[in-house]
UniProtKB/TrEMBL annotation, chain B:
<feature type="repeat" description="ARM">
    <location>
        <begin position="229"/>
        <end position="271"/>
    </location>
</feature>
<dbReference type="InterPro" id="IPR000225">
    <property type="entry name" value="Armadillo"/>
</dbReference>
<dbReference type="InterPro" id="IPR042856">
    <property type="entry name" value="RSP14"/>
</dbReference>
<dbReference type="InterPro" id="IPR011989">
    <property type="entry name" value="ARM-like"/>
</dbReference>
<protein>
    <submittedName>
        <fullName>Radial spoke head 14 homolog</fullName>
    </submittedName>
</protein>
<dbReference type="Pfam" id="PF00514">
    <property type="entry name" value="Arm"/>
</dbReference>
<dbReference type="InterPro" id="IPR016024">
    <property type="entry name" value="ARM-type_fold"/>
</dbReference>
Length: 341, 340
């Protein structure tokens, strides 16, 4: 028969609380009564595998226990409902299970063994008691030296000359390093030389081009210079020629003009001299200068005398007239005075 | 407790001639320290390892960054010839890389190298000259060499050195002449080059002709060349069997005949027939230089007259595959058929 555990209590005074109390296994019958099983309440034992407080699996969606130790009343209700429903379901399933039909009126079902060898049926489980007891401590004798039993066969070995150290094998890594380094170095140097050779080839090509271009440039310069000099020279010559021509033309013109000028010179000189009176008749000149001078002077004097006489006459007349005028004026004045008086 | 060392003995020193190279970034600084050590063997081994490492451009950059150049400059004056030889090798490797060359110019390595001009050991000199040649290949380097006044010294060394060193010197001179010609002219380079033009070795002849080409570029060079009667020698070289020599000789001619004096000298030396032959050569450089030389000669009236008979050859070159040859041929034909 199953015994029901004392209900779970949180013992506040105890140092240790059990989730599932250890218990002695009850004597149970060999064959469990199927009817009795139905009455079984779910034992208040805690299976650690299904304990909500033990965290299993990933903790990303952790169900955090409510703060209070008392479970939420709603939670309790829900759980009870779930339990009830599970029990109901189980009961329903059990009822659906086909069972042996009920015994007929007046008879009873009974279990019977039908095998060849009968088996004793009893509720009592075969138990045997075994006990053990150590002997009282005795003084232990010293353990004998452990000499393992000699097994196998004796064998002898000796290292011969040259077996421990095989030159060919040992030298391999050293050689590899040597050769590797040498070849690496050699490769580097060969690559360098190749690069140099390439560079030199390029250099050569460049130099050819450069030399050719240099020569071309210098040649063209030279050509240019020569042409220019040639041109300058020709132009200079041309200018020379022109200048000479101009000079000759001027010379000719000057000569012609001079000739023309000078041709006229002599008659004009003569005419000028004649005009200025350098050629003269001396007698005529003499008469002109001396005689005529005297004549003219004389005439002048005579005339002057005439003029003088006229002037004297004039003065006389003037005086007379003035006197008459004065007399007349006086007479007029007297007349006027007489008239007014 | 476990130690990091596996055994009590140090790992075996595989190559006794080289210093062991530390791992990763520590390699070059460690070698740098070893370079400054007093012990001869250490220095030699360190130099040998450094020499191998410097082929890699990243290592070369590291070498310069950690300032190995000071030590290397000091080691150039070392008493031991192996040390000097290895140092010059390392410097040569460094000069192959661009960062190396820049660093050389900044740290005045040229002057230190110049001290080795009179070095008794041959291989050191070879390496030193090779380094100088590498330096001179780019313009600031050539300018540096010219500024250091090395050109006259190199020219003076030319007659007395070994053949291979002469080749290297001629190359160096060729690049330096692009920067500055007057120094070389002042030291009488033309007469020295004249002898070299008749040397047995093909390389020397062609390089001497190339150097002459460089010298002829400025006017004084051209005048000197005409004065020293080099043009007949050049014309003779045009008939040389080796195409490089002929190419460079034609190049020198094409530049030297730009002056009127040069033109008449060339015409007097009967330059035209060999030049015409060279025009049909398969090597691009040869035919290009020959065409250019013909163009300059055609500027002179006598040359033009003679070349009018051969215009066909030049016209056939006008459909050559290379563009410069076509242009050159076109110019030549134009110049030949020009009426004043």
């Amino acid at each position: 028969m199953t015994s029901v555990l004392p209900p779970q209590k949180e013992s506040t005074s105890g140092t240790y609380t059990f989730s599932s109390r250890p218990r002695a296994l009850p004597n149970r019958s060999k064959y469990r009564d199927p009817v009795a099983e139905l009455q079984e309440e779910p034992t208040q034992y805690g299976n650690i595998m299904y304990d909500r407080r033990v965290i299993r699996g990933n903790t990303y969606a952790q169900h955090i226990l409510p703060v209070s130790a008392q479970p939420d009343p709603i939670e309790i209700q829900r759980q009870q409902e779930v339990r009830r429903r599970a029990a109901a379901k189980k009961r329903a399933k059990d009822q659906l299970r086909p069972r042996t039909p009920e015994p007929v009126e007046g008879r009873k079902h009974i279990d019977v063994q039908t095998e060849l060898y009968l088996e004793e049926l009893s509720d009592r489980i075969v138990e045997t008691d075994v006990e053990c007891q150590t002997d009282a401590f005795l003084d232990k004798p010293p353990t004998p030296l452990f000499v393992p039993a000699k097994t196998g066969r004796d064998a002898v070995t000796q290292i011969e000359e040259g077996e421990l150290f095989d030159f060919d094998i040992e030298v391999k890594p050293v050689l590899e390093v040597f050769i590797g380094k040498t070849i690496e170095q050699a490769l580097l140097e060969v690559m360098e030389e190749e690069e140099l050779a390439n560079l030199r080839g390029q250099q050569r090509a460049f130099e050819e081009l450069r030399n050719a271009e240099l020569a071309e440039v210098q040649r063209l310069e030279e050509q240019e210079r020569r042409h220019r000099e040639e041109k300058e020279r020709r132009m200079r010559e041309q200018r020379e020629v022109l200048r000479l021509e101009k000079e000759t033309a001027e010379k000719i013109a000057a000569r012609v003009f001079a000739k023309h000028y000078l041709a006229d010179l002599i008659p004009s000189i003569y005419s000028n001299l004649r005009d200025n009176g350098y050629f003269y008749d001396p007698v005529e000149r003499d008469i002109e200068t001396n005689f005529l001078n005297w004549l003219v002077k004389d005439v002048e004097n005579t005339l002057d005398d005439h003029v003088l006489g006229r002037k004297v006459l004039d003065m006389l007349i003037r005086e007379v007239v003035e006197k008459r005028l004065d007399v007349f004026q006086q007479m007029e004045q007297q007349q006027q005075h007489n008239a007014s008086a | 407790m476990a130690h990091t060392r596996i055994s009590n003995k140090m790992p075996p020193h595989i190559e006794p001639a080289r210093a062991p190279i530390a791992f990763g970034r520590r390699a070059i600084p460690k070698l740098n320290e070893e370079l400054a050590s007093e012990d001869l063997v250490t220095r030699q081994c360190a130099l040998a390892s450094l020499c191998d490492l410097v082929h890699d451009p990243e290592r070369a950059y590291e070498t310069i960054e950690t300032g190995c150049l000071e030590n290397l400059k000091r080691l150039l004056r070392d008493k031991d010839s192996v040390v000097r030889r290895k140092t010059t090798e390392v410097l040569y490797e460094l000069s192959v890389h661009n960062v190396g060359r820049d660093a050389f110019l900044q740290n005045d390595v040229i002057l230190s190298l110049a001290e080795l001009l009179d070095e008794p050991v041959d291989i050191c000199r070879v390496n030193m000259h090779k380094t100088l040649e590498m330096l001179s290949e780019f313009t600031p380097g050539a300018a540096g060499i010219v500024d250091a006044g090395l050109v006259p010294q190199l020219v003076l060394k030319l007659p007395s050195e070994l053949v291979e060193i002469q080749e290297i010197i001629l190359d160096t001179l060729h690049f330096c002449l692009r920067v500055n010609v007057s120094q070389a002219l002042a030291s009488g380079a033309i007469s020295i080059l004249k002898e070299k033009l008749l040397h047995n070795s093909v390389a020397i002849r062609s390089k001497a002709a190339q150097a002459l080409m460089g010298i002829c570029v400025p006017l004084e060079g051209k005048n000197e060349v005409c004065k020293q009667n080099i043009i007949p020698i050049l014309v003779r070289l045009l008939k040389d069997r080796h195409p490089e020599v002929a190419a460079k000789a034609a190049g020198s001619l094409m530049i030297a005949t730009i002056t009127t004096q040069g033109k008449y000298a060339a015409l007097k030396a009967m330059a035209i027939p060999p030049l015409l032959q060279l025009v049909s050569s398969p090597v691009t450089e040869v035919s290009l230089n020959a065409i250019k030389a013909i163009t300059t000669l055609a500027e002179a009236p006598e040359g033009r007259q003679e070349l009018l008979n051969h215009v066909a050859v030049l016209e056939s070159k006008q459909d050559h595959s290379s563009e410069i040859i076509r242009r050159a041929a076109g110019t030549a034909v134009r110049v030949i058929t020009w009426k004043p």
